[in-house]
Amino acid sequence: MKKIVASIFIISAIALSSFAQAREITLTTQMQNYSGDGAYLAIYLTDAEGNYQKTLWVAGKKSKYYKHLRDWARGSALKASEYDGMSGASIAKGTTFKATVQLDDALIDAGYEIRVDTAVEDKRDVPVDVRVPLTVANSGKPTAGRGYIKAFTYAM
Amino acid sequence: MIRKLHSVLGLIASLLLIVLTISAAILSIDPTLERLDSTIPADGHISVAQLADRVATHFPNVEQTQRRPSGSIIVYYSKDGQMGVDRVDPFTGQSMGPYVPSATSRWVKNLHRSFLLATPGRAAAGISSVVMLLLSISGVLLLVKRQGGWKHLWQAPLGKLSQRWHVQVSRVVVIGLLLSALTGAYMSAITFEFISDGMDVEADFPTEMATGSAAAIITFPALLATDLNDFRELIYPFPDSPADTYSLATAQGDAYIDQVTGTILSYQAHNGLRRAYEFIYQLHTGEGLWWLALLLGLCAISVPLISTTGAIIWWQRRGSVPKITDNSKPQSADTIILVGSENGSTWGFANTLHKALRELGWRVHMAPMNQLANKYSSAQRLFIITSTYGDGDPPSSANHFLKRLAHFKVDPKLRVAVLGFGDRQFPQFCQFAKDVDAALLDRGWQKLLALQTIDRQSTQEFSRWGETVGKALGIELTLLHTPKLPKTHAFELVDRVDYGEQVQAPTSVLRFKGVTSQSRTGFKRLFGNGLPYFEAGDLVGIVPPGSDMPRYYSLASGSKNGVLEICVRKHTDGLCSRFLHELPQGGRIDAFIQSNPHFRPGLGSKPVILIGAGTGIGPLAGFIRNNTGRHPMYLYWGGRDPQSDFLYEPELAEYLADHRLTGLKTAFSRVKEGAHVQDRIVLDGEQVRSLIEGDAQILVCGGRAMAANVRQAIDEVLAPLNITVQMLKVQGRYREDVF
Question: Looking at this predicted complex, what is its ipTM?
């Protein structure tokens, strides 16, 4: 009897936990007023060592320029399935861009980082323009970028 | 067909092409400016390792170094959390100031590549390149046809000012334009991914890397082995990332370099596609080839001029057909008027008919005879109004008519009437109109009226024809035509030489200059003496006081000779010739130029036989005088007495001396053993035959009796070769100016 109850508990615990909760995250990117054309962006998750996990958003329509988003390109191997349905137009200088994505709760406060690679045509590529740990505490706090991004914020 | 393609493409794309080429010309200066700023070391002098070492001493946080096509070295670094980009001196590694590519340059580049629109703009630019390519090719083909063959491509072009500039400029720059258009179209194809640029093939990111503390960059074998002139880009690994590597790009290929040992972990050589892309890119932008960029830029800057002159040529050609108001569409008109005209006067008469019929409420369509359609669905009447050119030939707006007639489906309810314009002085009076009438009869057309002819543009005869037409159609038709004279200019007599008094053939050579006090509008006034543009062989129409009908004289000079020269024989009852003979020095005339482009020596170096009598020597002397290319020219001329009416005697001696004239054979009729020019030709049969065998061309100028005699003589002389004058005419090797 006890074994059966225990098993039911364990099974339901496993079952419930696999119904992982997901929540919506809004990513806000404010661009510098650099001189140049619209920027390509890749917003993605890495673990603490920098190993690629998943893509959150890719800005920029022409896939042949994606290799300029260097680190992301290397990590995702530019597989279309990685960024399918998560892409949009490139971001013009000086503008602010917002995207809302779904994120598993399990990824938050688990040592993951949000990183952003950027590139502008005829100008240098900037891998890891922005790098910020994915935690509840950091939500809503802007992080300065080191390249074309002025400030990046995520809100849950 | 090619001409139509060329015009249509040129007109439609002209604005885009002008923007494209002006922006290109501006951009073409950049490679030179960049080159001035950079110092290129000799091959093998500096290695990438040395550069990296030198840069490291001045920039602590280097992220990337790059070599621009011009040779400048750029360093990307970060300082206090901000990115910076500087130019460095490769010999010392010191900063030469920030690298600031000009914002204007970037804007002009955007304008050039995409007209400041995004992808649709790029498509437009790409299409414009292809259009430029087609224009260049069609232009060259048209030019070859016009100049008479590839060998004559570089000879002085004939024609009006815009035509000559269009030809002279475009034939010099066409090679550069072709190159830019081809390379530009290729780059567009790359942008839209029709062709691969070979950049999608990349080295595999290495999986195994050395660990430990990094060796000094100056010892890196991969960097030591790379010369600075082959270097393109070196991307440093991300700080504190042991799994990252250096990325090195060179002219030959790309490699990943271990950040600890500096050896190559993975290498991908550039494939053929990539090398092709780099090469073609360089040919188009001239980056790194500053001299090529400047050359292409010069070619590009001429395009606005070529485009404008092209538009003017099109406009002038269009203008030679007069503006027809209320012209109905061919298939909905009930009356059709087809016009055969050489220089526009016949159009004037046809226009009067058009207007009169429209006033009756009819729907009238008028067009050149060459535009005969395959059928006219609603028409009941067809009027064909045509002049004749030269010796029974069709005028230029009707030279395809008889061919097209064969395709016309004869319609029993369409009745036709032919009206011919001509001059009874000529034996082939209205010959072409007669030919057309006969052809229509032959093909079973229904006649509205028998063929009618009009002599010397008589407005009275035209009115009478109008009444005949009216009676046949049961209407009142009054045709009142007032001939419109071309705009005349004033000329002033500056010189005259009189001949022939003693032999009852008073002839004068008259020289005029333009009256310079006239307004300086129009770019015809580009020559000195205020003369409009004309060439020897063209006609001048002089309107004597007391008449509104012009008399035509053949021009013995071109406007480039600075003087308008004619030979005039005084006729006792000739109003104009009397007026000219009595004209004092400084006296003025009103005249206009009528171009006669058919009567010219051909382009090329084939011999030319010039045959004339009396005042016919005028244009022939003009051809000889302008024979700067020293083509073999032989003059046969007939006069009455060498003591009295030997026109141009001193000038001809001069031309013989400097070889503008190769042979002069004269015949005088009123001396002992006198002969006419045709006798001289027969006497010289051997010479004439051998010249004709050498592809010579014959130009005849004189009265109609003399022209007929000369034709007979030439037929006689060439009989052994089985060549007739008619055959030469068809080949364009026998041309006449008969008065």
Answer: 0.74
